[in-house]
Amino acid sequence: MEQDTYSISELARDLDVTARTIRFYEEQGLIEPERRGLQRIFTRRDRARLKLILRGKRIGLSLAEIREILNLYQRARDEAPQSQLLLQLLTERRQQLELQRHDIDEVLKEIDVLSAHCREVIAKA
């Protein structure tokens, strides 16, 4: 059963990030934990938002893009606008990755050619 509130250390442990990372996302305004004195109290909503932030970062979205998605979700009564934006961002990210994969494949081919040449030179020596 999921808790109602979390400390920063619990959240960091659960999501396998540092407390510093969580504080950074708070400074960026992406999450807004409650404060009790100096202690931060995170809700399930904060935890869910943090999971979305981490997922977005993992697939290469910028903080600005993640913020835009989170803001749409907060304002929208349905998830269609958020899903539309996310789909657009995912499509763009996929295209970037496909181009990078093509570039990597080309570099690997070049490495293979140069490696073969080096082996030939070594074998003749």
Integer average pLDDT: 91
Q: How many helical stretches?
A: 5
- If you compute it from the alpha carbons, what radius of gyration comes out, rounded to the nearest whole angstrom? 22 Å
Number of strands: 3
Strand order of the largest sheet: 1-3-2
Q: N- to C-terminal separation?
A: 69 Å
Strand content: 5-15%
Uncertain runs with pLDDT below 50, 5 residues or more? none
Share of residues in helices? over 70%
Largest sheet: 3 strands, antiparallel
| Broad structural category | mainly alpha
Shape: elongated
Assembly annotation: single chain
N-to-C SSE string, H for helix and E for strand: EHHEEHHH
Question: How would you describe what is shown here?
Answer:
With 125 residues, the protein is mainly alpha-helical. Helices cover 72% and strands 8% of the residues. The protein has 5 helices and 3 strands. The protein has helices spanning 8-15, 19-27, 44-58, 63-75, 80-124; strands at residues 5-6, 34-36, 39-43. A 3-stranded antiparallel β-sheet has the order 1-3-2. β2 and β3 (39-43) form a beta hairpin. The longest helix has 45 residues, at 80-124. It is elongated and about 75 Å long. The chain starts with a strand and ends with a helix. The mean pLDDT is 91.
List keywords for this structure.
single chain, 125 residues, mainly alpha, three-stranded antiparallel sheet, elongated
Give the SSE layout.
Layout: E1 5-6, H1 8-15, H2 19-27, E2 34-36, E3 39-43, H3 44-58, H4 63-75, H5 80-124
Antiparallel strand pairs: 1-3, 2-3
